[in-house]
Amino acid sequence: MGKVIGIDLGTTNSCVAVLEGGKPIVITNQEGSRTTPSIVGFGKGNQRLVGQLAKRQAVTNAENTVYSIKRFIGQRWEETEEDRKRVTYNCVMGKDHTVCVDIQGKSYTTQEISSMILQKLKTDAETFLGETVTQAVITVPAYFTDAQRQATKDAGVIAGLEVMRIINEPTAAALAYGLDKQNEDQHVLVFDLGGGTFDVSILQLGNGVFEVVSTSGNNQLGGDDFDAVIVDWLLAKFKQQEWIDLRSDKMALQRLREAAEKATIELSNMAETSINLPFITADESGPKHLELELSRPKLEELIQDLVADIIHPMEQALKDSGLSRDQINRIVLVGGSTRTPVISQQIEKYFGANIPIDRSINPDEAVALGAAVQGGVLGGGV
Q1: Terminal Cα-to-Cα distance of the chain (whole angstroms)
Q2: From the candidates 192, 224, 225, 261, which is the catalytic residue?
Q3: Ramachandran angles phi, psi of 295, nearest 5°
Q4: Quick one: which of 143, 152, 154, 345 has the fewest CB in 10 Å?
Q5: Is 180 one of the catalytic residues?
Q6: Is 249 a catalytic residue?
Q7: Is 8 tagged catalytic?
Q8: How confident is the model at residue 86 (pLDDT cuts 50, 70, 90)?
């Protein structure tokens, strides 16, 4: 039996890991990164780009670049009318009212687009391991319906993988933290704030058995929404300074999105950052440049309404589990957006300082590492 890889198929970024010598390790992709953007780009002459290469060409080829496909997988057309307004690519109705994407006159199902990302992860794993990979464990949010889980599994099959198991992301995260190794019964809250979705899950652990007691969340809240608020602020500032509205300029918008994402990441560790975008546009007087300073307090002011939205799902998850706040033994952070300091502050404010927040594993990688552990169990390596 070959290696069973663990895949975190994310809304914004995906990650793949494998069990080596009894320990899960993240597989570096061919571009040298530990995570791969969940982006697919279609160029001229049926050229297809996935990951970092697709992200790089998104500025000049926005209408043929697909991102955030996870928000649509396994969904039916009527369910996604609101969601459809949030993306730049063309959603069309497929067979049985399922969502498809129309690119260069050809229609692709959400499973086909997702399979292209999975294929890239499979190839990277094969290059890293030096052997053919045919089996995988893929993770999904705990709130995914049966249709969404089946669609994710179908995407794996199209990518040439035997999907050994579909497991919940919070369960995978708990496995990555080694919480299955602890003997005492405990309640763990997994706080997962990614690029596109947010969910809170409460797990009951005891004797190596994991049970998702309750789950709640908001599949319209994530780091992408933080970035969108910054983009709006940049657009308003630029219009105020130059009297030019960039909203109809697709290339400028993509540059602003990337600058906003970079600024959010930098402000996780710094008090202030500069946003410099030379030649963002031009008019009869010549080229125009965007140059602004963004501080962490200003960022927190801009996103305060979104940050406030994390409270209700935590309350709902506790209510559904029948537990009180002080019955939670540990909080585990998952997803790159949890690095934003104001998020941790809000969690601490809600639960109090007594409940430990575990940050010992890279939040971008925890889910893939846990999937690799599960893969090791299924493959007989654990």
Answers
A1: 14
A2: 192
A3: -100, 160
A4: 345
A5: no
A6: no
A7: yes
A8: low
- Do 169 and 139 touch, CB atoms closer than 8 A? yes
pTM > 0.85: yes
State the amino acid at position 90 in one-letter form. N
* pLDDT tens-place string over residues 32-47: 999 999 999 998 877 8
**DSSP assignment of 139-182, as one string?**
EE-TT--HHHHHHHHHHHHHTT-EEEEEEEHHHHHHHHTTGGG-
Quote the pLDDT of residue 242. 92
Give Cβ neighbours of residue 348 (< 8 Å, ≥ 6 apart).
Answer: 357
pLDDT of residue 28: 96
Tens digit of each residue's pLDDT (9 = 90 or more) over 297-333: 999 999 999 999 999 999 999 999 999 999 999 999 9
- Which of 8, 154, 225, 365 is flagged as catalytic? 8
CA separation (Å) from 111 to 82, 168, 227, 250? 20, 19, 26, 27
Q: Which three-class secondary structure state does DSSP give residue 122?
A: helix
Q: Which of 124, 154, 169, 225 is catalytic?
A: 169
